[in-house]
Fold:
Amino acid sequence: MADKNGFFDLSKTTLSRRTALKGIAAGAGLALAPGFVRYSQAQSSAPIRIGFQSHRTGIGAAYGRWYEKTSAAAVKAINDAGGIGGRKVELVIEDDGTDPARGAEVVNKFAKQHKTDIVFGTLFSHVVIGSAPAAGENKIPYFVVSEGHHVASTKLNRYVFQPGITDVKSQIQSMAPWIAANAGKKVTQIFPDFAFGYDHRDYLPPALKAQGGEVIAQIAIPPTESSFTKYFPQIPAETEVIYHVMVGPAVLTFVKELGEFYGSQRPQLFGFIDSLEAVDINSPGLEFLDGSHFWEGSPRYAQPDDSAAQKAYRAAVGIDDNGAAVGDAKDVSTAAHMFGCWETLYVVKKAMEDAGYKGPEDRAKLVEATEALKEFAEGPEHPQGPKTFNGKIHQCFGIQNISKVEGGKLKVVHKTKIEDGLYEPEGDYTTQAL
Amino acid sequence: MRDASPARTYALHIGVIALLFALNFILPDYHQSLFARIMALAVFAMGYNLLFGYVGLLSLGHAMFFSAGLYGAGLTVYHLGWGVPEAFVAGIACGALLALVIGLLALRTSGVAFMIVTMMFAQVFYLLILYFAAWTGGDQGLVIQQASRVVSIGAASFDLTDPTVRYVAALALFSVVLLITLAVVRSRFGRVLVAIRENEERTRMLGYDTVANKLAAVVASGAICAASGAAYALLFGYVGSNFASIQYSILPLLWVLLGGAATTLGPLVGTLFMYYVTDITSGFTSAYLLIVGVALILLVLFAPKGIMGSIRERWLGWLP
Structure:
């Protein structure tokens, strides 16, 4: 097809070469001016710029939106209280499309173009793992809120930290004592046949065995599966507990079909809320979950014994007593995970202030100051609960919640101890060069 | 193929390489790193273009060749501790071997069936990566540590994590593949491939073994795509299954269509264009894929032969 309308024919425009050059020069001047002004300011008064690698699009978008809301609320709270070391904090947001290749480019962009002080906020494990090399090469501290075991595995690099949310290995290990004591000792696991499922496949059996329980069957469901009934006959009849960690849109079908398979005579059900983050627990088809139990990092529903810090945090982020956005009951939050953004930003504040952080030239000091942190007390900065931090593996450890679905709400019935989730370190980042 | 003056053609291509080399010293840091990635992925597009543009075989499974190189190089470094050069060669060998096997099977079909068969094989390859997660890292992938990404030649060592070394390494690969592609399309073999695209029956009637030529093109295309994948693993330090997903089979098709199928420089132009449209528009809106889509529709409407294809059609008829 020819260009009949002259769409690309620049010769038909009335723009002269001189006018165009003037325009380009003016535009370039304007584009450069803000940077020049910023450079001319004393660095001590310039804001601390935090690059937020957000899952705005792609599979992580529901999480990304709530991670942004929580981070914005934390930054506002920090700024209202005087900022970090007297400097205001500014979030610079880039969408990574929940894609590891784009994630690495975004980290590069933060380090080299936006020149942010740190990078922060990534959730999905494959994006964290894909972006970690870029953080290490740019020597820019990278604070993730992912719950993956990748940071603590010490397979990434010295610039990657996870100080605001516990990792999945610790979470699974913490669940085992309660499951064995309260739900049953013979457990069948149903999990998606990819890495998230493998964490549960690999870490639960030894943890349960230590509590006198046993995983009697493991059923891996291919990620492309959309119907699950054919897998249910594989569940041994003597199963006392079904431990399920299905994720994604398939979870509604999974629960519905499981309900149809068992009717009212079902084993105990235990799941990870990851399956149902941002999903209303009262959605049609989820009735079968009534009476079952879930892991929650931080409770979605307000609890009668919520601390003042927890109440203040929920108000600041803008979630109601049901864990949905204030003013929009259908906009359910990702409460079990997003608190990690709030807490991570306060860890960054503490580490920067400890390091006497002035600018990117102090990034190595910031790494060392973060590694030197030992514990975070429960309070406004850490509303989910107290935590310890292992500077060698760059990972925090904290309490976990076990909640029961009762009357269409999740009620916390047990809180684990920090010690329940501790394990032997698998390496030591501090031996790596900065 | 109307070029009577090869000097002009070679001058243009060497000029592009020289320009890219000069950009290494001019570009701001971020764009230098982005260009390194674009050049590595443009090699993927060039490999795809060899089969799609010159032979007319539309594959929807080239992600498997890219990821064969990615994993061939990445896993040998990660599990066997191989050096960068050996791992790079292993990556290319994996891609070439896979392309030979897939070519022998898939070339029994043509047209839509070829698209479907290649897509299904790629899906099998993707699921195999997930299935062998204990070795491949599954959907999360693996990190190739910085210490493993150093090339030692004699007393000199080159750290591929250094931005300039990485840029030059990506440019070297891009240049070699560009010149090889140029030589191939100007060669007798290249002309046979174009003849197959234009009229396979007539080419066979003239005495050419079209199946053998197509198989050679599939293997060459697979090897080039694998070289891109191997380079990606070694230059950027990440090996993950998303590179084997259907998205990475469609991306090189888009890059080639945008830049201009059956043009030697089109793959670079298309990759560059897509990357920068995404990079710039994502700063303004989360609906940047919509803008990319609109840009694609505009190109199909007003420049259906892609950017370089349209330039060749309207102004520079001698462009290869």
